[in-house]
Write a structure and sequence with these properties.
The chain has about 325 residues and is α+β, with helices and mostly antiparallel strands. About 35% of the residues lie in helices and about 15% in strands. It has 12 helices and 10 strands. It has a 5-stranded mixed sheet with strand order 8-7-6-9-10, with helices on both faces. Helix 5 packs across helix 11. The protein is globular and about 70 Å long. The chain starts with 16 loop residues before the first helix and ends in a 10-residue tail after the last helix. Bound molecules: zinc ion. The site of zinc ion (ZN) has 8 residues, from loops.
Length: about 325
């Protein structure tokens, strides 16, 4: 099996706003598109396994199997499941968040979609954020640098443990030669071993090689089933950006990103969304074509379980960000 074919602008996803408008002009067109992304090799009935190139579409977005008569919802199990809003509105939201260079604000989304309330826009943004990340899937592998950074306040980030009134963000970055591979980011409550352990286990494949500094919060790493390489930065004589070059790069890009979003004026409660979006973009930073990020987000949206507002706002949100 070769590598999957690269999606093509104008064929697999709309390359311009005009194409977007033409492609997604009706609910049926949107449903057809979801089905195409969800079943790229044609719809296969989960009941009897019959493969159909032209399954019959019934009302309410159901495919009817001609053989066993089973009905399959095109949107069940996806981000769009049981939505009360038109699919076209969802698609517009996805196009908007993937086209904004520094990420979409809830206010911006509210304006673009004409949503009645800021809270609705906020909920939408967070649902989309959950489609950008896939916890427990595609964990980091190989050699992985782990460190923490601090973000918040009035737009500056501070490196170094113990910074006050800032959110702590754990960073994991795969080492791929001289460049970082994929990354994971997550807000953590503190830099204790239990918080860092949870971040590592949620984001890094067992057996990987974890590289950290000599912080005591990393003492358990080996017992969790990883190879652990510790570099004592102060003793090594090298500055942190030499010892952990990938983390350093990610943290400085995160700084710039943070400043780009309304000069960092983001509520701490929204930080999870921005980290998800940053991770999504970073891990697809070769996707330069307009529309390709939209397509990638669509691919993930169709495999995502639905998220209720309660799940988003409920309690302590320590979900691991994956991309
Ligand atoms: Zn069937």
């Amino acid at each position: 099996m070769g590598k999957p074919r690269q999606p093509i602008s104008g064929t697999d996803y709309p390359g311009t706003f005009q194409e977007f408008d033409e492609w997604f002009s009706s609910e049926k067109a949107c449903l057809d598109y979801i089905a195409k992304v969800r079943w790229p090799n044609g719809f296969r009935c989960p009941g009897c396994g019959l493969k159909t190139d032209n399954p019959s579409l019934m009302g309410r977005g159901l495919y009817l199997c001609r053989k066993c008569k089973r009905q399959t919802s095109i949107t069940a199990g996806t981000l769009f499941h049981k939505t009360h809003k038109p699919l076209r509105t969802w698609f517009l939201a996805m196009s908007f968040v993937t086209s904004e260079k520094y990420g979409a604000s809830a206010l911006g989304l509210q304006r673009v979609l004409g949503l009645g309330s800021y809270n609705t826009a906020w909920t939408w943004l967070h649902k989309l954020g959950r489609a950008m990340v896939r916890p427990e899937r595609d964990k980091l592998m190989g050699a992985v640098e782990i460190d923490e950074t601090y973000i918040g306040g009035i737009g500056e980030t501070v490196r170094g443990r113990g910074a006050k009134r800032k959110s702590i963000v754990a960073i994991g970055a795969e080492v791929r030669g001289s460049r970082p591979g994929r990354i994971r980011l997550s807000v953590i409550p503190d830099v204790s071993a239990s918080s860092l352990d949870e971040f590592i286990v949620s984001n890094v494949q067992q057996g990987a090689e974890i590289r950290t500094d000599g912080w005591s919060g990393y003492t358990d790493v080996e017992t969790l089933g990883y190879k652990h390489i510790v570099t004592n930065i102060s003793a090594s004589g090298d500055p942190a950006h030499v010892v952990m070059p990938h983390i350093h790069l990610v943290a400085s890009l995160l700084d710039r990103w943070w400043l780009g979003i309304h000069q960092g004026a983001i509520r701490a409660s929204h930080l999870d969304y921005y980290l998800d979006e940053f991770t999504f973009r970073f891990n697809r930073r070769t996707s330069k074509k307009r529309g390709l990020l939209f397509y990638r987000l669509m691919e993930q949206a169709v495999e995502c379980a639905p998220v209720s507002r309660k799940m988003i706002t409920g309690g302590h949100n320590l979900h691991a960000t994956t991309g």
